[in-house]
Amino acid sequence: MIRDLVIENRTRRRFHQEVAIELETLRELVDLARLSASFGNRQPLKYILSCEPQKNAVIFRCLIWAGALKDWPGPPEGERPSAYIIILGDTEIAKSFFCDHGITAQTILLGATERGLGGCMHDGIQRDELSRALGIPPRYEILLVVSLGKPKEKVVLETLEPGGDFNYWRDSDNVHHVPKRLLADIIIG
Amino acid sequence: MIRDLVIENRTRRRFHQEVAIELETLRELVDLARLSASFGNRQPLKYILSCEPQKNAVIFRCLIWAGALKDWPGPPEGERPSAYIIILGDTEIAKSFFCDHGITAQTILLGATERGLGGCMHDGIQRDELSRALGIPPRYEILLVVSLGKPKEKVVLETLEPGGDFNYWRDSDNVHHVPKRLLADIIIG
């Protein structure tokens, strides 16, 4: 059931870093993205894959982690992602990417969840630094980075009342709490 | 397998209009959206549902269908969607919606596909007219419309060579052909 997969597919930020992800797995996940919808069928998205420690470390340094957790600079060594998929917009194919990257990032993460993996969509990226570090040509706009690994943290969903604080938070047992709006508050007609 | 669902989840534009979709089904699909990721966990998306002929007709008139099929103004009566989910951005919650609507539209369509339904993400919308016709308050930005129904058309995927024509097309048997880039052409590193 897709519902089970959607519920299991929580944003994950701490991983069993020692569990490697094969390049072939990343290719399978991008193939799911490839087979998904693209506005006007332009398919302007391109992908850079990483599952090697050195390249992973370069990407990790360019990511901003969990804006709502002010005292947490991101996962320490040992709990970092085992892999990344960088989603790029090819400006030689399109000038606007609509929300194609949302479509494909979600598809990639659902595919990862099915494989017992999990991850996070990062928009907080030091884009210039990442482009420079990986030698990404200027024709490619960095849209998102998807981090991937074997999840190490427990995530629980809670109710977000209208006007309440939408920020996620961690308790003293390192359980990650995510307030979610109720269905009645998001269906308005 | 999510891969089977992703492959089955093709953009559909012709439907068995006589097959109704229950309001409860739409609510279940929006619940999948609700349980999906949102940037910064802001959850600024709101939804309007429609599965009644009169409201459906209003929404249908505000949609631009299949830009690449120049001689086709959209599905005729009898092949139109049985339902719609309008995805709105609530500007009182956020000013930017990132690609949240891509995440949720894809999730909604995967859920619909699992139920034997299908549909289309519409960005080509006469937004002012739709807002006026449904009385949508100005605080809500219309991001996407997802049309839904029981699919009536056959869709086949083909290979899009680099530099080739990405436009989808229909053959004389009304089979819909969609060129897709190869994996080797979208993974660049």
| Tally of helical segments of chain A | 6
Weakly predicted, low-confidence segments of chain A: none
How would you sum up the major sheet of chain A?
4 strands, antiparallel
Strand order in space, largest sheet of chain A: 1-2-4-3
SSE arrangement of chain A, N to C: HHEHEHEHEEEEH
| Residue share in β-strands of chain A | 15-25%
Oligomeric state of the chains? homodimer
**Mean pLDDT over all positions of chain A:** 97
Work out the radius of gyration of chain A. Answer: 17 Å
Helicity of chain A, in percent?
A: 25-40%
Apparent shape of chain A: globular
| Alpha carbon gap, first and last residue of chain A | 27 Å
Structural class from helices and strands of chain A? alpha+beta
Largest inter-chain contact set: A-B, 65 and 65 residues
Strand segment tally of chain A: 7
Report on the architecture of this protein.
- 2 copies of one chain form a homodimer.
- Chain A is of the alpha+beta class and 189 residues long.
- Helices cover 29% and strands 23% of the residues of chain A.
- In chain A, the strands form 2 sheets. Chain A has a 4-stranded antiparallel beta sheet with strand order 1-2-4-3. A 3-stranded mixed beta sheet of chain A has the order 5-7-6.
- In chain A, β6 and β7 (176-181) form a beta hairpin.
- Chain A starts with a helix and ends with a helix.
- The relative contact order of chain A is 0.22.
- At the A-B interface, α1, α2, β1, α4 and β4 of A face α1, α2, β1, α4 and β4 of B.
